[in-house]
Every structure is written in C-alpha cells, then in structure tokens.
C-alpha cells in the first residue's frame, strides 16, 4: 500500500528489552494491502498456477504413494532451510519408528506429518487459528520447545539473528500485536478474490514477518503455502517450494525483505517463479520414479503374480525404507512372508540393509532401503 506517496509494508516501533531500548517491525494489516500488480506480475502468477494444475493432471491414477514421497521431499527441504538435516533414509524410518533412528531424523519427519495434515485439511473448510496451532503442535513433537509453548502464539519477544533484540537481524512485532495480526492473516487466507499464487506469497511473507510462534515459524509458514495452494487451486498436491527455496536462501530472504518494505511485486514474482519451476521439476521426478519402478518390476518377472515381493515393490515409492514388521503390517502378510519378500528384493539389489544404531533400548529392527529411489529423490531435492 502507499502512504504519503511512499510504498511501505509496515514501520518500526520502539520496544524495551531487559531495560534497554530496541526496535521491532510492525507490519501493515493485510486487510489494508493494495494488490496492484503489473501485467508481468499477473502473467507470472498465472503461469505458476497453471503449472500446479498440470502436475495434478499428469499424476497417475495410483498417485497416493508418489504423493507421500513428494510431501516427504518438501518436508525434508523445508527443514533444511532451517538448518535441520538428516539422511532421507533415517527420516523415512522415523515415520514408522521414531526410536529406531537419531532424534534429528524424527524432528524432520514431524515436518512431513504437519504438511500432510495441512494438505488433507485444505479442502475441508476455511483456515482458523486452530489449524495453525494443530500444525505447530505436530511439528514440535520432538522439539525442545516447552510444552506450554506448542500450539500457542508466543507470549514473549522474538528475534532472528543475534543474541537479543538489541543486536538482532530482525525483530518481529511484540507479543501483544501477534493476536490481532494473526486474526488479520486468517481473514486474508480465507478470501477468494485474490489469485492463489499471490495469496500464498503474501500469506507466507506476512506469517514470517509476524513470527507468531516461539519456534518453527519458517516451517509452518511453508506448510501454510501448501494449504493455500491446494485449497485455492484444487490441486492434488502442492508444489514442493521448499526444494527451490533451499537452493536460493539469499533470494528468499531478499524477497521477504522486499515484501516488508512494500515491494510486493518483486516478492510475488520471485515466489511465483519458484512455484512454477518446482511444479515442472515435480513432473520430471514423477516420470523418473515411474521408470525406476518399471525396471524393478522387470527384475521380478520370474516370480508369481501374487508374490509378496511384487507387492512390496509397489509399496516402495510410499515407503522406501522398510523393516519386515512394517512390510507385514502394510501388506497384511505373516512375518515370515514379509521377511522372505524383503530378502528377495535385497538379493536382487532393490533393497539394502541399513546400519541404524537407533535411539531406543534393546536390539533394533533390521531396516532396508530402496537406495536407488532415495538417491533419486535426494538428488532432486538437494
């Protein structure tokens, strides 16, 4: 919006930290935001939205396993933006047994679960504070954030970079402003007179500016992108925008700054480009996974059509890390049959036994990974 002929997105206010003066950023309300975009901006958002829809149109009829894999890549990349990294094999295993792997993998797996919950809830109704709080609680299951701060807006000052608000890179609004700003954000999220990509871009940038939680704001902000795009476009899956954000952190941080100082068009163009390119790359990954599964199926041509090993191959895109127990549960077969299926795929080079030390007591289960599939996704998301 413009005030006095100057483009602004908020203003600094004085705060006090431990008796010392500091300055925080108070953003303008989204209800007052002018969405005047150039024709080039609009065309870019239209191309991005069309790319999102093309992904849904190209997904195979049996897309659900691929969907889980793509959401997993988004969760892993979103966590890496925040400096949380863990091998993809450990993250997948943590989804089944969070005691089987190091705690860092469980933290990253929580990102997937929060994203999956948001995507599932997107068609069901408008956004509420309760949605955000549920996603945050799920994200924080394995975090060090105190229980009383999970699923609740922060009640204390926050800052990014530095040891205190007096030396921080960015200081979001004081806690007394968070509730009204989030009311305004939720209201904007439920509008239908704004195109989906612009809406997602604005919501994410404003969420990061408000920084409403004590931890996990970047990841919840990207979960909000997924919710918005699925809800507004009707897409089957959201584009994994975190994959490209992780590759260009400088562009991302610069875009957030541009939004805060009122340069909306620049931020929207950068964001729309990320949405379009991540959608295109998703189609490439889907094709590559399909070709890999077809190759695996050919390696099992000598087995009976009803062999458990054949059924296990079809399961791998959704669960590329398995144990005999998880295979038995997923396929509804006995433990001996499951062990035999895993052994067959291991003997033919489709699965490889992993060496997980585990975080729990007792003898850990044997885990096996579809290395070719994990490498494919890791290269794509890296």
Summarize the model shown.
The chain contains 15 helices and seven strands.
Description:
With 382 residues, the protein is mainly alpha-helical. It folds into 2 domains: 2-280, Fic-like fold; 284-381, Winged helix-like DNA-binding domain superfamily/Winged helix DNA-binding domain (Arc Repressor Mutant, subunit A), CATH 1.10.10.10. The protein has helices at 39-58, 64-81, 88-96, 103-121, 129-139, 175-189, 196-210, 217-233, 241-247, 249-260, 264-299, 308-315, 324-331, 335-347, 371-381, and strands at residues 2-3, 6-7, 10-17, 20-27, 321-323, 352-353, 367-369. The strands form 3 sheets. The chain has a 3-stranded antiparallel beta sheet with strand order 5-7-6, sandwiched between helices. Helix 4 runs antiparallel to helix 5 (129-139) and helix 5 (129-139) packs across helix 8.
The topology string of helices and strands comes to: EEEEHHHHHHHHHHHHEHHEEH
Strand content: 5-15%
- The DSSP helix count reads 15
The CATH homologous superfamily of the largest domain is named Fido-like domain
Strand order of the largest sheet: 5-7-6
Largest sheet entry = 3 strands, antiparallel
Give me the CATH fold name of the largest domain.
Fic-like fold
Specify the structural class: mainly alpha
